[in-house]
Write a structure and sequence with these properties.
The protein is 74% helix and 0% strand. The protein is an all-alpha fold. The protein starts with a helix and ends with a helix. GO terms for molecular function: DNA binding.
Length: 293
């Protein structure tokens, strides 16, 4: 009985928060919509923040439950992989428009700093990221494996931008048409990645790091050394006198020695980077190195 009451409160809260917004919705509003006394709400949830966090989690569980049901339906109907991808994107966009508060709008609210909510947000972000990866792998197969995280990044960027326009009611397309348009654009991106075979920008090791899940020191160190290895490889390919090239490589090696230490000498690090920065071709990479330090 209590579980049913709790579930009713969460379901009602989703609707009230969605319709009124987080700031305008009150526990009294939710209690009245539930047909309960406000005290009954507080027996289950200590605060509006706690209730919003539960509503946020339940809302995204609903999305993934709908995605599983859609998967079963499409498997039974033996739909082509690209049609499956289109249908999943349409589902995601329909969900995002209906529950926009729980996907985008909360980022400007004070609750974004609530520790319990941030943990739920982080879990949702990781689950959605993995789901989007699986959607693309199913559609494009093993040939995309090397570039899967770059493809996911492009997909997320395109999806977010068009969802912003859709939510502002500036598009005349249906979500089914927009999903088909996005799949066609993804086809072009994936084909280009596979045919031109560039070095991947995102890989498993750094794809899950973001403002909610900052990079740990060990991972940051690994990325720094990878960047420095790229600088050294670039120096090897420069068209210049061997003596000058050797000097640049020597300084890059000294910089690497510093960066590998637990407490690098900041003065020496700056001196070595300043020397490498005198070579115009290296300046973009040195700027990135300085940014990461």
């Amino acid at each position: 009985m209590e579980q049913l009451k709790r579930a009713k409160i969460i379901d009602t809260a989703i609707v009230v928060f969605r319709d009124k917004g987080y700031a305008a919705a009150s526990m009294q509003d939710i209690a009245e919509a539930c047909g309960m006394a406000k005290g009954s709400i507080y027996k289950h949830f200590n605060s509006k923040e706690d209730l919003f966090t539960e509503a946020f989690t339940a809302c995204h569980q609903l999305l993934f439950a709908q995605a599983e049901e859609l998967d079963r339906t499409m498997s039974a109907n033996k739909l082509h992989s690209k049609e499956r991808l289109r249908s999943k994107i349409e589902l995601l966009m329909d969900y995002a428009i209906e529950y926009h508060l729980f996907l985008f709008d909360f980022k400007e609210l004070p609750i974004k700093d609530n520790e319990r909510f941030r943990e739920a947000w982080k879990n949702k972000k990781a689950t959605l990221l993995a789901w989007q990866r699986d959607c693309l792998m199913e559609a494009y197969g093993p040939s995309l494996q090397r570039y899967i995280w770059d493809a996911v990044a492009v997909f997320r960027g395109v999806l977010t931008e068009y969802l912003t326009h859709a939510n502002q009611r500036t598009l005349s397309l249906s979500m089914a048409e927009l999903a088909a348009f996005i799949v066609a654009r993804l086809d072009a991106v994936v084909t280009d990645l596979i045919e031109t075979a560039p070095e991947p920008v995102l890989v498993e090791a750094n794809a899950y790091f973001h403002h909610l899940n900052p990079m740990d020191e060990q991972s940051r160190q690994q990325v720094l050394l990878q960047l420095l290895a790229g600088i050294q490889a670039f120096i090897q390919g420069l068209d210049m006198a061997e003596r000058s090239k050797g000097e640049l490589l020597e300084v890059a090696g000294l910089l690497q020695t510093q960066l590998e230490q637990e407490s690098p000498n900041s003065l020496l690090t700056r001196v070595y980077m300043a020397y490498l920065d005198t070579q115009p071709e290296l300046r973009p990479s040195i700027r990135q190195l300085k940014h990461m330090l």
